[in-house]
Amino acid sequence: MAKITKVSAQKRPGRYNIFLDGKYAFSASEKTLANFRLFKDTELTAEEIEEIKQFDLDSKASDLAAKFLSYQPRTVYEVVVYLKEKDLTDEAINNAVSEFEDLGYLDDSNYCVLFIKNNLHVGKDGPKSLANKLRKKGVSDNKIEDALNEFDDEDFIEAGIRLIKSMKHQQGKLAFKELKRKSLTKLMSHGFDHNLAENIFAKLDLVEDNDYELDAIKRQGIKAYKRFKNLDETQRKYKIKNYLYTHGFSSTAIDEFLAGEIVNLSELDEY
Q1: For the domain that residue 16 is a member of, what is the CATH number?
Q2: Any domain includes 230
Q3: In angstroms, what CA-CA distances link 103 with 13, 62, 97, 99, 138?
Q4: What is the pLDDT averaged over residues 195-214?
């Protein structure tokens, strides 16, 4: 048996140093002192000392986890990583996680659903992108899949529109074909599959308009001319034709531009 010979307050509020048989033994919180009634002259067995230390670690882990969770919802993995940074034992961390799982404050399945709903409300990510983000937060594939199965493609339309709605302003600057290609590429890079991306693009109500196409080939054609104007005529026409083709314009429109039917080629240097 060891006897508590001194209990002294630390500079840190709420923490106390415990001395056994005249020597410093361990520190404990005010909560631990009260729970085990640790006063001067209290005698403790080795088993009781270990129980007190574990209780104190568990309390510390619980308090830290509660504070961490108070700011926003977290995944189990995020809480574990945070607590590991606080030099807590695995046992204390696991006990804290179990405590908050039992209370319902830690629930990866519920977290996934809330995470997806928030994106649908204000975000711009598709299902695949959301799945990747959740994996980085340590959520299992099964839970991610179950959460995504609660939503259908229609639920993601608005998020996709938020992502590409600015592309509307590119009409008259890009060929419709190029505008669509860029829109679909952007959507798929943010986790929307091809079919869903096509549906989202269709919701923008953009159509291939002759006036817009004329403005676009004029703009892109002048840009191409300025880029290649120092080449000889044959090379220049070849380069301009290739440039416009790769930017989504039809062969007919390109031939009309090169024939001077859209812009007087002799006046291109004035632009």
Answers
A1: 1.10.10.10
A2: yes
A3: 28, 12, 10, 6, 20
A4: 92
Indicate whether 263 pLDDT > 90. no
Q: How confident is the model at residue 269 (pLDDT cuts 50, 70, 90)?
A: low
Residue 206, classed as helix, strand or coil, is coil
pTM of the model: 0.81
Examine residue 59 and state whether it is found in any structural domain, yes or no: no
Q: CA 148, CA 150: separation in Å to the nearest integer? A: 5
Q: In one letter, which amino acid is 35? A: N
Q: How far is CA 6 from CA 37, 54, 104, 218, in A?
A: 14, 20, 40, 88
Domain range for 249: 210-270
Answer yes or no: is pLDDT of 267 > 80. no
From 203, 230, 247, the end of a domain falls on 203
Structure tokens at 94: 């696991």
